[in-house]
Specification:
Elements lengths: L9 E4 L8 E9 L9 E2 L2 E2 L8 E8 L2 E9 L1 E5 L12 E8 L17 E5 L6 E5 L5 E7 L5 E2 L2 E11 L1 H4 L1 E4 L1 E2 L8 E3 L12 E2 L19 E2 L1 E8 L3 E4 L3 E7 L7 E7 L5 E8 L5 E5 L5 E5 L4 E8 L5 E11 L5 E11 L2 E2 L3 E2 L4 E5 L11 E6 L2 E4 L12 E4 L7 E11 L2 E12 L3 E5 L9 E7 L7 E8 L2 E12 L3 E5 L10 E8 L9 E5 L1
Parallel strand pairs: 4-13, 21-28, 30-36
Antiparallel strand pairs: 1-2, 2-19, 3-14, 5-13, 5-16, 6-11, 6-12, 6-19, 7-14, 8-9, 8-13, 10-11, 15-18, 16-17, 20-22, 22-26, 23-25, 23-27, 24-26, 27-28, 29-31, 31-34, 32-33, 32-35, 35-36, 37-38, 38-41, 39-40, 39-42, 40-41, 42-43
Length: 522
């Protein structure tokens, strides 16, 4: 019944917002449909959890997989102008469940332990958000620093963003034209919108897609892609991928150790261990010989890897481990970023000051530009008079992207030649609340919020309340706003905004504070 799909070719996945450039094997691919690009209801509603609804689709692996990248395309089917973006989610979650007779053996929040799962803030450096087919930032790639190992079997994949729908719209997964394995499944545990309360085929007539104004599904699959490496069942590596971070061009990283282990019941021979790019990622023997190394059951050996970038930007390769096993070649992905100038800080918000030093050949004394960019979108940072010298640059972030990690480029002229330096990445962080000077107060009381990434540009503090079934915001008067401290005045109560306990949120140009903080007006 199951159709096996093993697409094994090397691809180079590059996205400007990626924290590293990955060369990986496509393990499973269900591309977006060529005829139906609708986003179908799939979301955690942080303000309305009864409406939570998930779609799951299956995949099967013949060999052990080390999954390094998961790509999920999607679309906002209820758009909120320029605010609909996965970067505005409170969190993004990925789950892999075991099979239970052609359905997942659990769903998020039901108490079942997934085979693997991860929950991250959208600004995490492992996440790259890109523009989807509908024009919003609605696609997401997860590039895992610690790839999970999946033994051969049948599994079910779930992805879900936690979004406030009345602020940012509603997100959905997109169909695929492939027909692999079982039908994709859908579940809404409460059934509040008429969706099935147990896992049910997404194209079953009882699923109320048309009542919700979605086209009736004619295909069985939903789009997603898995990338990584395929390993023999009796061999493992630790770590399963190596990310060296930022290293100045011409310099070398500290050596990193990779352990290769025999987890089977009999011996095998490693014919060769090599780097696919030995001039940049150098593999040296440790307790492993690089040729004709025998590993008996339960034993292991090590090699060391050093990263020496020869150019700026994201660089990647792999350790190739060749054996007589199946598959014959296993890979450990390697990645790092070559810097032509070194940033003093790699995360922040509007008002963050970044100092760049250690230029490859100097910046010259004629001022150029420091640019934070995402594809064709870019931010020119502010450089004051005297803050650009041949040896260092002091740049202030004065505009914002959505939460996430973006590349930095330094542009200037040397004589008449235009010079471009790769200078690492910058992660825009949402405002974070650490504490309140008081968690309750009467109208007119001043309250100070302490935290991080508030920005130097004044934003908003507000309390959320319910008015006749609709969520509304009660803005608080802000009397002081700095990068790490905000003072606001408790607002007056009204007929619709009475005394009570309300969620408190800090909002700025990057996003909303994700913490579940409440404030009480007694």
């Amino acid at each position: 019944m199951l159709k096996r799909f093993y697409l094994m070719f090397l691809v180079s996945l590059f996205c400007l917002a990626l924290p590293f450039h990955i060369t990986a094997t496509v393990l499973w691919d269900q591309p977006v449909s060529s005829t139906n690009k609708t986003g179908y209801h799939n979301q955690d509603y942080d303000n309305d959890p009864e409406s939570d609804l998930w779609i799951s689709d299956d995949f099967e692996n013949e060999h052990a997989w080390h999954i390094s990248t998961i790509f999920v395309p999607g679309d906002f089917f209820k758009d909120k102008y320029n605010k609909s973006a996965l970067g505005n989610a409170k969190s993004l979650s990925w789950y892999i469940y075991a099979d239970d007779g052609g359905k997942p053996d659990g769903y998020p929040g039901d108490g079942t332990t997934p085979v693997w799962s991860i929950k991250l803030d959208p600004s995490d450096s492992q996440i790259a958000i890109s523009t989807g087919s509908g024009g919003d930032p609605s696609n997401v790639a997860l590039n895992l620093v610690s790839p999970p190992r999946l033994e051969p079997g049948l599994y079910w994949f779930v992805f879900s963003p936690e979004l406030t729908h009345y602020l940012y719209g509603e997100w959905g997964r997109q169909p695929s034209d492939t027909e692999y394995g079982f039908d994709a499944q859908v579940i809404q545990p409460t059934g509040v919108n008429g969706f099935p309360t147990t896992w049910t085929s997404a194209r079953d007539p009882i699923v109320p897609w048309t009542k919700q104004r979605f086209p009736r599904l004619t295909k069985q699959d939903f789009a997603f892609r898995l990338e990584g490496s395929s390993f023999p069942s009796n061999m493992d590596a630790n770590p399963r991928a190596l990310y060296f971070g930022n290293v100045l061009v011409g310099s070398s990283s500290d050596a990193r150790i990779v352990t290769i282990r025999n987890i089977g019941g009999s011996s095998f021979v490693i014919n060769t261990i090599s780097s696919s790019s030995p001039g940049v990622f150098r593999v040296e023997p440790g307790s492993c010989a690089l040729t004709n190394q025998t590993l008996t059951s339960g034993t292991s050996c090590t090699v060391s890897v050093t990263f020496t970038p020869n150019t700026g930007g994201e660089l990647s390769a792999a350790i190739n481990i060749n054996t007589g096993l199946t598959p014959a070649t296993a890979q450990v992905p390697l990645a790092g970023t070559g810097l032509q100038a070194e940033p003093s800080i790699t995360e922040g918000t509007i008002g963050t000051v970044i100092t760049f030093t250690n230029p490859t050949d100097g910046f010259t004394n004629k001022k150029g530009k420091v640019i934070i960019y995402d594809g064709n979108k870019k931010i020119n940072t502010k450089i004051a008079k005297g803050d650009w010298t041949n040896d260092s640059i002091r740049a202030t972030v004065n505009k914002a992207f959505l939460p996430g990690t973006y590349n930095i480029r330094i542009e200037f002229k040397r004589d008449k030649d235009k010079i471009l330096y790769d200078a690492g990445t910058f992660t825009f962080r949402k405002p974070e609340i650490s504490s309140l000077s008081s968690v309750e107060g009467t109208p007119g009381t001043p309250v100070t919020i302490t935290g991080n990434f508030f920005s130097t540009k004044k934003g908003q503090v507000y309390l959320e309340y319910n008015d006749s079934g609709k969520l509304k915001k009660k803005n608080c008067k802000v009397t002081n706003w700095t990068m790490n401290s905000i003072t606001f005045t408790v607002p007056k109560t009204t007929k619709s905004f009475s005394n009570g306990t309300y969620p408190l949120t800090v909002s700025n140009k990057v996003g909303l504070s994700p913490e579940n903080i409440t404030f009480t007006i007694p």
